Amino acid sequence: MSDLPFTLDQLRILKAIAQEGSFKRAADSLYVSQPAVSLQVQNLERQLDVPLFDRGGRRAQLTEAGHLLLSYGEKILSLCQETCRAIEDLQNLQGGTLIVGASQTTGTYLLPRMIGMFRQKYPDVAVQLHVHSTRRTAWSVANGQVDLAIIGGEIPGELGESLEIIPYAEDELALILPVFHPLAKVEKIHKEDLYKLQFIALDSQSTIRKVIDQVLARCEIDTRRFKVEMELNSIEAIKNAVQSGLGAAFVSTSAIAKELQMGVLHCANIESVVVKRTLWLIFNPNRYRSKAAEAFSKEILPQFANPGWNQDVLTFTQKNIVLTTLDTATPTSAGED
C-alpha cells in the first residue's frame, strides 16, 4: 500500500455508522445523503479489499476488520482534532476551545459557575461541558477528547497510569428536611434519629446512590436501615419532594445553596458526624494542553479548591499541572456522581 487506502472523511463515516447503528442515521448525523455514505463505504471496502460491515441484519454490524479500522480510525481523528486545536492556540486565546468534563453532581452545580467565570474573562473561547458518569468521563480525558475533568466517583483502575488524579475539593453531603419538620427545630440530631425518618433517594441502581451509601457507611451510618419511601431519578426531583414535605434526603451541599438561601429547605446537623467525600481533578499529562485549558487551570481552578490548597497543593506550569505537597490516596468510591 504505497498510498493510504482511506481518507479522513471515510473514517468519520465509519465512526458515525458504528455510533448510530445504521447508514441512514449516520448520513443524517453528518448532513449528507445515504447514497453518499453507502458509496464511500463501498469505495473504502474496495480499497482495503475486506468487508467492513455484516449486512445480514437490520443493524449495521462491524466485521472484525471493521472493528480494527474503527479502533485506529478513532485515534487518527482524535489526533487530527488535537492538531487543529494546537493551531488555533496560535491566536493566543482570541479563539480556540476548552472542553471540560464532569460527573453528574459537579457538572450540574459546580462546573457551570466555573465556566461562567472563565467566559467573562475569555469570551472568545468556545467552552464545551461534557457531563457523564465518572467512568465515561475518565476515558474521555484519557483519550484526549476532554481537557480536564472534576469527578466524584471511582476512576477505572486501568487508567491509573494514563491520568494524573489530584484531590481537588471536599464535597459535603447534607441531610435536608422540610422546614416545618419537627427535627428542623432541633440544633443537633442523633444518628439513631435517622432510622426514624422517611427518606427520599435516588434509584437503588444509581451510581450516585451507591456513592452516597458508601460515604455514609464510612461515618457508621447504615443506610440499609433507612425507611426509603420514594425513589426518584434526579436530585432536583428529590429537593422538590423534600420541600413539599414528603421526606428527608442526603444531597450534596453544592446542590442546595439556592434553596438554603431562600429558606425553603432545612439543613440538619448530625451530632459528631460530618459526611464528606473527595472530588478529584483529572487530566492526561501526555496529551496536548491548550492555552485555554492552561488559563482555566491557573485562574479558575484555584478559586474553588479547598481552603489552603490553592498555593500549597496545585501549582501550574506551561505544560502540566503538578501536585506538590499533598499525599492522598486515589479515589475508592464506586460509580459516580
Protein described:
There is one protein chain. With 337 residues, this protein is of the alpha/beta class. It has 13 helices and 13 strands. Strands 3, 4, 5, 6, 9, 10 and 11 form a seven-stranded mixed beta sheet that branches. Strand 1 (53-54) and strand 2 (61-62) form a beta hairpin. It is elongated, with a radius of gyration of 24 Å. It starts with 7 loop residues before the first helix and ends in a 14-residue tail after the last strand. The model is unreliable at 310-336 (pLDDT under 50).
- Can you summarize the main beta sheet? 7 strands, mixed
Oligomer: single chain
> Could you tell me the radius of gyration in angstroms?
24 Å
Assign the structural class, choosing from mainly alpha, mainly beta, alpha/beta, alpha+beta, or little secondary structure: alpha/beta
Question: How helical, in percent, are the residues?
Answer: 40-55%
Terminal CA distance reads 47 Å
Instruction: Give the helices and strands as they follow along the chain.
Output: HHHEEHEHEHEEHEHEHEHEEHHHEE
